[in-house]
C-alpha cells in the first residue's frame, strides 16, 4: 500500500469549511438560525373543580391539577417567567351525557378565565373547547346510537365558545375535530358581538397514542371505542393540509398541528403553505417520555427538552404549546444572566 494516498497534498484547498463558524460559542450564537424564546410558549393549565389542594399528575411530573384558589399563584409564576399565554383545561364537578358543565357560566374554566383576567389582564388566555372531560362517556361530542353526532355537537361547541368568550377568553381552541366547528363557533361568537375573540383551531389533530398521560390528567378516556372516527389517521399528511385549509376558510386565526414531534413534516409543510400563525402542541406523552428518561438518568432532560422544542420551532411552529414552558423559560432566563 502506498502511504502517500492517504496524505493531504500541499496544494489541497477546501473551498468550504463550515467548521469555521463553529469555533466559538459566541460565533455559533451569531449564526444560529432558530432561537427558542419564552415568548414562543403557551403553557397548559388544568383546573379541577373538585379539589382544594393541588394534585400532581403521576405520569406528568411537575404538572398539577389546581384548585381555583391556587390558580392565582400559578399565574403570577407564569407572568414572572414572561410566558405570554396559557391554555386552560377544566375538570368538572360532575360529568353527564351532554357535558353541561363545559358551557355553564359558572363552570370551572369560565371561573378560571375570570380569575386570570383579574390577576393578569395582559396574559393571553386560551381555553380548550371540547366535551370529553365533561361527558360521562368520555367522547368529544354528543353520542347517538354509538356514534358521535357531528352537527349536534357543533351546537354545544358553540355554546362553550360563547361562555368562554363571555368570561373573557382571548382565544378559544376547538379541539373536538368535528367538521365545521370553526365556522359554527365564528358565527356564534360574531352573532353575540365577540368579534375580537380569536379562534385557534386544532386543525390537524391526530388520533395519537401520545395523549395517554393527558387523558389520565383530565380523566378524559372514552368509556368505549376510541376517537378514530373523528381525529385524524396518523399516516396522512395531505389530509392535514385539507383540514388546515378548511379551517382557515372557516375563520381560524391560528391553526394547529398536534402532536408535534411525530408530525414535524406536517408542521413544515403547513408553514410553507399557509400564512396564518401556526401552533404545535408538544403533547403529554412527548413530555412524559423525556421526564421519565430524565428521572432514570437515561437522558439529560434539560438538553433534550430544549433540543426538541427548538426542532418544533425550526420545523415552522410560531406558537409552541408545552408542559415544559415554565422550566424552559427558567432555563432561558438563567442562560441570559
Ligand atoms: C381534548 C384534548 C386532548 C388533548 C388536548 N385536548 C385529548 C384527546 O383528544 O384525547 C391532548 C393533550 C395532550 O396530550 O397533552 N380533546
Please, could you describe this protein's structure?
The protein is α/β, with parallel strands linked by helices and 337 residues long. It has one domain (37-336): Aldolase class I (TIM Barrel, Alpha-Beta Barrel), CATH 3.20.20. The protein contains eleven helices and twelve strands. It has helices spanning 25-30, 71-80, 108-119, 150-167, 181-191, 212-218, 238-250, 264-273, 284-295, 301-315, 325-335; strands at 41-48, 55-56, 64-66, 85-91, 124-129, 142-144, 147-149, 171-174, 198-205, 254-258, 278-282, 319-322. It has an eight-stranded parallel β-barrel, surrounded by seven helices. Strands 6-7 form a two-stranded antiparallel ribbon. Helix 3 packs parallel to helix 4 (150-167), helix 4 packs across helix 5 and helix 8 (264-273) runs parallel beside helix 10 (301-315). The longest helix is centred in the middle third of the chain and has 18 residues, at 150-167. The termini are far apart. The structure holds ligand PBG.
Task: Report the biggest beta sheet as strand number plus sense, adding barrel if it closes.
Answer: 8 strands, parallel, barrel
Taken as a percent bin, the fraction of beta residues is 15-25%
Portion of residues within helices: 25-40%
Level-1 CATH class name: Alpha Beta
Average pLDDT: 95
Instruction: Name the CATH architecture.
Output: Alpha-Beta Barrel
Strand numbers in spatial order across the main sheet:
1-4-5-8-9-10-11-12
* Count of folded domains: 1
- CATH fold title: TIM Barrel
Which stretches are poorly predicted, pLDDT < 50 over at least 5 residues?
Answer: none
> How large is the count of helical segments?
11
In whole angstroms, the N-to-C terminal distance is 56 Å
Secondary-structure element order, as H and E?
A: HEEEHEHEEEHEHEHHEHEHHEH
SS class: alpha/beta
